[in-house]
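Now for a concrete sample entry.
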Amino acid sequence: MTVSGPRGRLLTTRRNLLGMAGAAGSGLLLPNGARAAGTPAWRRPLAEADAVIAFGHTGPVTDGGWTMVHDRGVQAVRRAFPKLRTIYVESVPYSADATRIFRQFVAEGAQMVFSTSEYGDFIKDVSDRAPDVAFMECDGTNVTGNLGWYYVAHWYASYVIGIAAGLMTRTGKIGFLGAFPIPSVYASANATLLGAQSVNPAVTLQSITINAWFDPQAATQAATALADNGCDILCGIMDEPAYLRVALQRGLKAVMWNTGMLDFGPEAYISSVALDFNDFYVSQVRDLLAGTWQPQGRFLTLGHGVDRDGWGPTVPVEAARQADAMRTRLLAGYNPFRGPIHDNHGRLRVPAGVELSDLEIYHSDWAVAGVSGLE
């Protein structure tokens, strides 16, 4: 486990986190999900110097993508509140070990725990037994007495960039890399293709899922397969830039995710769905310290936590102009996810005149017409 002191100084404990977690916290975790009587601690003001904030990351902070962006948020918290202490663990597994890690955060005295990816029952079981601790789960779905969720409404930025991709593709084939066939991947693939089809109806999208968020070798192999199949634009929702390198080597174009990645291959770069959790994390900690934090679900919206990165140098001016015109409409409240929309089996999913809400997009488990390889 890595912690920061009052001045951001990094310390590394020599204790085995997973070994301790099973036994630690016997006096802190309530049995059978029972809740303590009275006002929970997170409803009372907390001195900055007494605060401990914990983060459980799905990958390494050096991944160049998802976890790196969250780590920037951790650093923003340290700058905003230099007297508090932060704890983080990288590469938290999706297993019972995750539960032990979250329990250990509580045992270490954390008053607020963030999981920077979805951990479902692994974090909920711990939050149920630690009612005095505030929990927030990124890409989660649960709201309980002390657990909320947060996520980025990335589908709008994907739609904008999809317009540029639809105008730039020569073959009419977009390749898409995802980790798993889960709602966030469906939302990203669907939005990208719908944006592309809004200016080029013949465009299709071929997807490959690699069963990992961070696996550069598998991502490289999948990107190569997509290129071999005629996809001249590669995009996806991965935690690292492997497929941008494939695009650069093959003379293709790429749309990235998490952060600006122009430096990894400017000749191939179209743009990126760029995330910024800094203000969100600072505001959550500020609310905790003030005793005003509340468990709820929250989207970070276009221009406020998620947006497109700058356009790459090879993006045609007209493609950028059309895409940015849509971005302006979206910022004004326009919703492009309106029927009729059919799925990739021909079924009408969204009737004419009906708009999909952010929650409906967030929970989508189907692919739009023109998407293949994502079931």
User: Anything to note?
Assistant: The chain is about 35% helix and 20% strand. The chain has two domains: 2-152, 155-274+307-372. The radius of gyration is 21 Å. The longest strand covers residues 269-275.
